[in-house]
Amino acid sequence: MTTNATAPPCHCCPATNVPTPGGHCCGGSQPPANGGPGDCCRWIHDFDDCCCCGHSCAPPPIATHEAPAPSVNPGPLVTAAPFAPAPGAVAATGVRRPEQPAASSSSGKAWQAPQAARPTPDWVPSANDINEFTRRPTRVVGGSGGGQGLPTLHNRPEVGETTAAQMEASASSVSENFRIHNGGQDAGFTEPVNEWERLLVATKTVGLPELLDRPHGSPVFEALPTETNSMHFDPSNPLTIDSYQAPEYNRLAVGDRPDKIAEDVWRLVESLSLEEKVGQMQQIHVSQLLDRNGHLNASAVEYWISKKMVGSVVDSPGNGQGEYAWYSAATLANLTNSVQQVALAQGSRVPLLWGLDSVRGANFVKHAAMFPAGIGIAATFQPKHAYEAGRVAARDTRAAGYQWAFAPSADLNVEKRWAHNYLGFGEDPLLLSSMVRGSVGGYQGEYRGDRARVAACVKNFIGSGVPFNGKERSAKFIPDNLLYEYYLPGFEAAIAAGASSIMQSGGNVNGEAMSLSGYYLRRLLRDKLGFRGVMIADHDEILAQAREFHTAANFTDAVFLALNNTSVDMSAGDSTFSANTVELVNAGSVGEDRVTESVARIIQLKKDLGLFDAPFSERQLQETVGSAQDVNAARMAVSESLTLLKNDNGALPLKPNERVLFVGPHLNSTALLGGGWNVHRQGPTASERDDVYEGFGDSVLAGIRKLTNREPVYHPGFRLDGRPSDSAALTNLIRLARQADKIVVGLGETPYAGHMGDINELSLDANQAYVVSQLALVNRPIITVLIEGRPRLLKDVATVSSAVLNAYLPGIHGGLPIAEVLYGKVSPSGRQPFTYPRYEYQSRDTIWQGLYNEYTPQWPFGFGLGYSPLVYSNITVDSNELRPGQPVKVSVSIRNDGQLDQKESVLLYTTQGFRTGYEPELYRLRGFDKVEIGKGMATVVEFTVTAEELAYYNRDLVRVIDPSPVNITINAMTPNERVITLNLAL
Questions:
Q1: Cα gap 579→279, rounded to integer Å
Q2: Ranges for the Fibronectin type III-like domain (predicted)?
Q3: Residue 621 CB-half CA count within 13 A
Q4: Which end of the chain is more exposed for a tag (fewer CB within 10 A), N or C?
Q5: How many CB atoms lie within 10 A of CB 257?
Q6: Nearest in space to 175 (alpha carbons), one of 142, 225, 211, 219
Q7: 370: Cβ–Cβ under 8 A, 6 or more apart, which residues?
């Protein structure tokens, strides 16, 4: 949780507008236990602060900063320098920064301006590039060219003219299917007092058609009843078909990617007023458009869409104060279509870009197939599963009327305490890059023409996965040469795969505020990596520079620094951003050409997604949401992710005639398999539990029932609320254990996301560990199944368990695949995508750490067992010398001596004998391949190793190669480890 010296004011109803210890207005010092909808009526920053008054909850006032006052002393001149000043550079004349309070320091000097001028941007169109245009276009919909073209600006149809058929086809009866109400203050919407408060006495009720037909700018309000509806389930269910045609994964395919800005986009951007341009750079949360009953609030729609002309809306109402817990694609489409109609008819008339955190399937769309979390996908060592998860997520997201997915994560997961480890693809740069490449391909594909794809937003650039204390958004310290070597490849892979947008990370890296950094966000991202797409600041991240991190004097200053230093294009969540930007441009502190630069990229993305031709939801996609085909794809991913870490004396697989006792809530809950980012950010609330799925998905026990046609013997074993188990219940558990042949225990975490998942240490919950210790006294084989988003320290649990199966966060379809592995229908084939620590101090240990450092984890990166014994032999190379330009082929033979078919990931590592002045890695993954070997069969796996890939970054950020001996290791630190040595020569 964010800590403040003084509790911030609560923007709740007056009855509870008194801050409590911790700065929350929840009636206590802690936020709600689950942090989900129904517990909080207002989402501010990933549940950092919650307003839980139980009544109407208003957003913070929109104008919370003081406009820069005229000053006798105009203050220092600053530039929009994107880079650190060159040695000896002198201050250049630039834009004027609003006057700031003098900084207190021992030297008595005030704030110092950057000293290097930003070069004239090459994106400014010349006079020859801009034709005559209408100052305020009447409409920006329609057009031709198969989704590729923009309408001619001089001949756009009027509002009610050419789009009626399109609206009828794509958004028919939206005002009937999604209720829209008009609300003032009592409905949970507060506009700036100085603009609209005097109008709140109006009581006229107006529906969506009247909102569209009345003159632009006329206010409409309705006095709503005071009672609040309780959260309930969306009654609509998808009419799903079993299968459909879908493109298959192609490792070599490269989809569409951002390109230069088209001429018609430039013309459109130049036709917009400053306010219309700045609106495109503002993204609001969908809850800002709702009344307290979860319905569209016409007053809010009028303000944000017609007046503020925002360019993007994010999230599902299920994460705000929505009427339903989990929204179907059809219901979401009615909402997005309704608001899109208003955007096209009023305001800037540029289509809205709707964004959704579809991070593991369309996890916020009711009954959409949900895949394992990223860490489980990585454990498959099969990029095709990352592709398939992205493809299905894109299809179901587009079905709901959203065109932008905030995924995948390209963060390298180093700090194991970090709450978002499970969203990423592990600790190794090569594995991460391969998965990111596949994932971006799945989300985007040929997105310019394929309406079943979305824009991928890769996150979070850069270094989020190594917070120094393990907490979300805390500082990161990464030497630049290591940042380039290990943390950059994931983003390089994303950009190479065509990522159309990137989200910046929060907090600071190496002491520098990422949100304000010209070095990271312009020089590194734009210039070095060549990224040409849209960059968005995470929710409230620019605002947080003044409010939380103290890297800016006030909100206006934060926006000033972000726009002038970086190439950020859009700000999420910050309601002050657009007003501050207009103010800064009008004051001459930010050039309008800087705004034009960003708006051009945003509108180009909208054009690429086909929004000017097809701005509404793709209704035909709704019939495939949750199809059997997609659910089977998710189950296959789970099956290949399950990682067997220990299996003494053949404890697994279970035999049909064995008496097995199943223990632990994790085995009897679909919600716990899902984890965070599942229905809601923090997972289903305590009141929703498994009921929210309405039978969609399987717990492990449900999977066992399906597989064995028997009712498993189950005992909950322990509580998940931190309270010790009841002594009578524990006595009953021990009695059942004595009657069993084997005991399967499910252990792990409860759902979390963001700050709600912050922890101080990795130790397993004490109640769970205690129950296992008591079961161990019964002297029966214990099989431990781990359901967790990060590796919890097992300590004695690992010792007393005969078998350990890591299921990560498999998702709501994980029950049946887990059952199939437990009972031997499928042999496990997952490999650890991270180092599983044995002790707390190992929370940052990685396979690529320096040779000198101790590496004694519980289980190493890449470890994983199967049920069939495999024999590795005949590791060979076609040359004993490795030189630049002369790759060496490495091959190894594998034979399956077991009774089951076995999928096997073969991993190749290199270790250099020495590097001049730099410590070599313990092991560096250079290649991997997953093969299937039938029982009694053999195969040969081949890799290619090059001298160039052994280059590394020195402190000058120059890649160098040192001649030395090089060990080639197959499956390091596993029973099948094989090593051969080459000589690296130059």
A1: 9
A2: 904-974
A3: 31
A4: C
A5: 19
A6: 211
A7: 360, 361, 363, 634, 674, 678, 697, 811, 812, 813
- Whether 259 is catalytic is no
Measure the CA–CA gap between 543 and 559, rounded to whole angstroms: 8
The edge-to-edge listing of strands for the beta sheet with 964-970 is 881-882, 978-984, 964-970, 902-912, 924-933
Tokens of 392: 């299905």
* Among 396, 370, 506, 355, residue whose Cα is nearest residue 45: 506
The DSSP code for 522 is I
Distance CA 94, CA 116 (A): 9
Query: Which amino acid makes up residue 369?
Result: A
State the Cα–Cα distance between residues 892 and 894, nearest whole angstrom.
Answer: 7
Task: For residues 459 and 20, give the distance between their C-alpha atoms in angstroms, rounded to a whole number.
Answer: 34
Say what angle helices 263-271 and 592-608 make with each other, to 10 degrees.
Answer: 130
**Which residues does 580 contact at the CB level (< 8 Å), separation at least 6?**
65, 555, 556, 559, 560
For 37-40, the CB contacts below 8 A with 24+ separation are 37/231, 37/318, 37/319, 37/320, 37/321, 37/322, 37/325, 37/680, 37/685, 38/230, 38/231, 38/325, 38/685, 38/687, 38/688, 39/685
714-to-635, 671, 675, 736 alpha-carbon distances in Å: 23, 18, 21, 9
Catalytic-labelled residue, pool 538, 540, 698, 845: 538
Q: Per CATH, the architecture of 642-842 is what?
A: 3-Layer(aba) Sandwich (3.40)
Question: What pLDDT score was predicted for residue 99?
Answer: 54
Query: Residue 959 is which amino acid?
Result: R
833 cis-preceded (ω within 30 degrees of 0): no
Residue pointed to by tokens 């092991």: 923
CB proximity list for 927: less than 8 A, separation 6 or greater: 430, 907, 908, 943, 944, 945
DSSP 582-639: HHHHHTTSS-HHHHHHHHHHHHHHHHHTTTTT--S--GGGGGGTT-HHHHHHHHHHHH
Closest CA to 236 of 330, 342, 99: 330
Q: Which two tokens stand for residue 575?
A: 């309601």
CATH 3.30.990.10 fits 870-984, yes or no: no
Amino acid at 415: E
**How does DSSP classify residue 93?**
-
Within 8 A by CB and 6+ apart from 310, the residues are 279, 280, 282, 283, 284, 304, 352, 578
The strand ranges marked E within 655-762 are 660-663, 713-715, 742-748
* Pairing outcome for strands 660-663 and 643-647: unpaired
Task: Give me the helices (H) in 197-271, please.
Answer: 208-213, 263-271
Burial class (CB in 10 A: 0-12, 13-18, 19+), 962: middle
Among 981, 986, 769, 905, which Cα is nearest to 382's? 905
Which of 517, 408, 421 minimizes the C-alpha distance to 466? 421
Q: Which two tokens stand for residue 87?
A: 């040695």
Tokens of 214: 């009345």
For residue 191, the model assigns a pLDDT of: 39
3-state helix, strand, coil split of the chain in percent (to 5) is: 30, 15, 55
**pLDDT lower than 70: segments of the chain:** 1-231, 238
What size, in residues, is the chain? 986
First to last CA, the chain: 53
| Residue 49 CA: distances (Å) to CA of 12, 43, 269, 545, 961 | 11, 8, 37, 17, 50
d(CA 322, CA 41): 9
Domain assignments of the chain as residue spans, ordered by start: 264-589+596-624, 642-842, 870-984
Q: 264-589+596-624, what's its fold?
A: TIM Barrel (3.20.20)
